[in-house]
Amino acid sequence: MGVFQYEARNRAGEFFAGTVEAHDEREAAGLIRRRGLWVAALHLQCEEAAGAPAVSRWRQQLAGAVAKTPPAKLRVLFLRQMAAMMQAGMPVHQALQALAKSDADRAYQSLLQQLLAGILAGRPLHERMALHPAVFPASLCGLVRAGEESGSLTQIFAQLADFEEHRYEAREALKSALLYPVILLVVSLVALVLMAVFVLPAFAVMLQDLQAELPWTTRFLLALMDFVSGHLAALLTGAALLALVTAALVRDARTRTVLDGWLLKMPILGPLQRASAWRILLELFAVMLKNGIPLTTALAMAADVPANRHIACEMKALRAQVESGQPFAASLRQLTSCPRLLVELLMAGEMTGTLDAMMEKAAAFAAADARHRSARVEALAEPVMIFVVGGMIFFFVLSIVLPLLTTMDALM
Fold first, then answer.
1. φ and ψ at 18, to 5 degrees?
2. DSSP letters for 4-63
3. How many CB atoms lie within 10 A of CB 341?
4. From 1.20.81.30, 3.40.50.2000, 1.10.357.10, 1.10.10.10, which CATH number describes the 2-155 domain?
5. I need a surface site. Which of 117, 221, 257, 264 has the fewest CB within 10 A?
6. Which residues cross the membrane (predicted)?
7. What are the tens digits of pLDDT across the range 36-70?
């Protein structure tokens, strides 16, 4: 089975480009002709071994890792361009065709062509996006699916573009803030490890010859170095096993739900996670309710949207309660992940019959709260890192300077 890249035209002379999976060129050309297209160019792009989805996923992840444009930036670029074109009245396939013809880098053009090929084959957009998990996470594909099913894909793209742009900018700002402390940490660790391995033992031998007492910090470092050097193989094996067990536990649905629940309880990251998740959910609910989608249907569409599995489980419980006849706001109050102020706002909207409008206001409040908390995390990250690095440097320097002073006292 191989992936063939093609160029073709329809009866109206419109140009199409994309990819198709087939065993050979003849089969690929037949598949393209069934779409009502005349093949202009066809060549093998890549060949995959049958029954090797894991290899395909690994190859796709490797390609995304070495791509010129990072996946997060590709995601922001795609969402913003699709939102702009669909707001101008272009359907999805025409928007993808226009973007595929643009002067973009190879990774972005390949992504657009694969999405376009799926759309022309009659597949939904969210399904084709899900084939690129490095660029489009499952929660984002769930939102696109909800937009397709509710007829509000344009609004969903616009809201996703705003959200992803803010998250990308916040992530880049955090990277910039942590750049200096991380460089300082790496350089300091290298220097201190070299001193602990080569300099400190020499001072220890000298002090033992002088029968001087070593400071506790120096004794601790020497004991640590002896333990690591004596059990290096066991430590490396244990670290590898721990990494494998951790990866397996994270992939397990129940363990992931528990871990995500703990994350929501963390002092700083927990409120940020809650505000970000409920902002997306409330914006989605508001759009679907305005388009005439019943609340129970909206809850069903949004069941798999949250990236946090604990919130996703609570969404399913919320849907079950609403379907059983319970009021939405009263059911929402029982959730541990939803901020109390948002519950009060939605309760007021439900009582006055303006739930969709109140959801927009609650989403705006959650967005502002998420921005403030994100800025707070950025402001705290750099001084905390500097404090940690400074503490490590102080401990190591103290462990080396104190033996020097002890040596000088012993010599005098």
1. 180, -160
2. EEEEEE-TT--EEEEEEEESSHHHHHHHHHHTT-EEEEEEEEEE--TT-HHHHHHHHHHH
3. 12
4. 1.20.81.30
5. 257
6. 177-207, 227-250, 384-405
7. 777 767 767 555 444 444 444 444 443 444 345 57
Cα separation, 207 vs 217, whole angstroms: 14
Cα dihedral across residues 371, 376, 382, 388: positive or negative = negative
H or E stretch covering 147: helix 138-150
pLDDT per residue as tens digits for the range 144-162: 887 887 777 888 888 888 8
Cα–Cα distance measured from residue 126 to residue 136, given in angstroms and rounded to the nearest whole number? 9
Residue 251 CA, chain-centre distance (Å), reads: 15
246 Cβ contact partners less than 8 Å away, ≥ 6 residues apart: none
Could you confirm whether domain 269-372 is CATH 1.20.81.30? yes
Stated pTM of the model: 0.62
Angstrom distance (rounded) from CA 412 to CA 407: 9
Residue 248 tokens read as: 């397996």
Residue 172 token pair: 């880049």
Strand order in the sheet with 15-22: 15-22, 2-9, 38-47
